[in-house]
Amino acid sequence: MSTAKDPAEPQNQAQNIIVIHPGSYYLRIGRASDVNPVKIVHAIARRRKPGGETHRDGVLPSIVEKTKELLQELEDCRLQITHTLQSCVQSNGQRRYATPPQQIAAFNRRSQPEVVPDSQTDWTDKDGRDVVIGEDVLSLNPKGEYNVHFPIRRGELNLHAGVGGSLFAVMSDLQTIWEHVLRTRLDINPSDMKQYRAVLVIPDIYNRAHLREYVTLLLNQIGFGCCFLVQDHVAATFGAGLGYACVVDVGDEKTSVSCVEDGISHPNTRVRFDYGGADVTQVLYWLLQKCAFPYRECNEKSPLDGVLLRRLKEDFGHVNLDVCGSVEKSFTVQHPGMQKRNYTLQVGDEAMVAPLSIFYTELLAITGANRTAPKTQKWCSSQPHPEDCFDAEYLRETGRRNKDNLEQSAIDSGTLANADAPDEDLVVDGLEQEREAKANDRDYLLPSGQLVGLDQAVIQSIERCSSDELKRKMYSCILIVGGGMKFAGIGSWMQSQLARKIPAVYRSEQNIVSSPKDMDPEITSWKGAAVMSCLESVVELWLTEPEWTRYGLRILREKAVFMW
């Protein structure tokens, strides 16, 4: 006799699934049944041991030394973008106009802050905690006795030679932050953790050794009952409800592009750049300083000033060609130990030039991000791991040994002439792969060694697709996700740039999706992972702790929803 299914069962199941999307600046975590995830600053501060070494990760990437050559390069690029904007037309057909920077600077020099009396606040380290997590980290006294760590930087684990930079220390920081959110924000008792399942959103270009650490963290350290991993670009297509898309993910410190079809991210099309919204923030700050930024004490290395500059980028930044001339803006500065101050300033095309730095990457020289070679999947896959008995390194070495043994036994038996061993095809030679990976990286670099703009990266990613039909599909659906490109009008700008550069045969197909289902593009991937976790077809994907302990990376290779 068959029993009817309880209609509430999927909802109950979703309440026991925790979706985790860790980023360079924010951590998004929540139940699959939640409308929106909990979002906290992905940082931790630990009290320094007496006489211990100091380490403080910044909110923004560091600015490189401003040499005469660098300043000239930045200025040349700024003028190029300014001239491009002046040659554009508004929606009413009239030419754009701009207020001279000297006029804006004159206004800003005269601007004096309005001080609000009795508005002083205190630093958050007065309560004597040994560990501080999330937004509270930003309000710690920079001269205090805490070391500050962001466990993920540029989309990768933040490994470095300083204190707290070892793999063990970084994974411990992740465990402390995630367990804190699970306990305090999601009200999950640590003793009940085995009843919960975890879905971890990982980068589309991943490091296999790091995936091993993540699964160990989820199953052995935090103690989830089971888990599975999904790439962020694949999750984004599920979140947007699309069967295929060229996914453009601009985060805080990294930007990645890949082509996804039917839940598979095509490895050859994947590329990642070490720049994002935080680099755009530094570009905006440089532009504002050129226009006599009235908050003269601003220090981009200070956490609270870094947060302020991020907010100004989000409030001021746009690519709306109908906004011409200077616009009056206001902002508030409130730091512990000081009175609140209200500032007024004028902003011109600086608000448009900064967001366009992801297309004109010479401006990213301010943080050195335009000098970092892009990463492809082959770059990450070339890192062998002793536990994975099917990686290229293992197959290459065992293939060679098998060939040598076959040849030796054939010589001993007298059957080998000058012919090659019959099993030569078993040899997996990584040199060819390495050459191909380097060629892929070169595709994303200009002859001068600088990165191409985002529009060119999209074209090069799609052009790597294996068939004309697949290319046509990808040009017809370009999905923009992530929080680093949330500027009004930037989707239209990208569309116009692509229209001029893509092969003529695909131009009529081109379509850009920037906020699918009216969803915040920041949470598209998180939402997609939540949707995936509740599908009946993912039952086979869940990885349990006993399986992981017994088989390690081999079971992950077998169960992963992506090509290993």
From TrEMBL:
<dbReference type="Pfam" id="PF00022">
    <property type="entry name" value="Actin"/>
</dbReference>
<keyword id="KW-0227">DNA damage</keyword>
<keyword id="KW-0805">Transcription regulation</keyword>
<protein>
    <recommendedName>
        <fullName>Actin-related protein 8</fullName>
    </recommendedName>
</protein>
<keyword id="KW-0539">Nucleus</keyword>
<keyword id="KW-0234">DNA repair</keyword>
<dbReference type="GO" id="GO:0006310">
    <property type="term" value="P:DNA recombination"/>
</dbReference>
<dbReference type="GO" id="GO:0005634">
    <property type="term" value="C:nucleus"/>
</dbReference>
<comment type="similarity">
    <text>Belongs to the actin family. ARP8 subfamily.</text>
</comment>
<keyword id="KW-0804">Transcription</keyword>
<keyword id="KW-0067">ATP-binding</keyword>
<keyword id="KW-0547">Nucleotide-binding</keyword>
<dbReference type="GO" id="GO:0005524">
    <property type="term" value="F:ATP binding"/>
</dbReference>
<keyword id="KW-0233">DNA recombination</keyword>
<dbReference type="InterPro" id="IPR004000">
    <property type="entry name" value="Actin"/>
</dbReference>
<comment type="function">
    <text>Plays an important role in the functional organization of mitotic chromosomes. Exhibits low basal ATPase activity, and unable to polymerize.</text>
</comment>
<dbReference type="GO" id="GO:0006281">
    <property type="term" value="P:DNA repair"/>
</dbReference>
<dbReference type="InterPro" id="IPR043129">
    <property type="entry name" value="ATPase_NBD"/>
</dbReference>
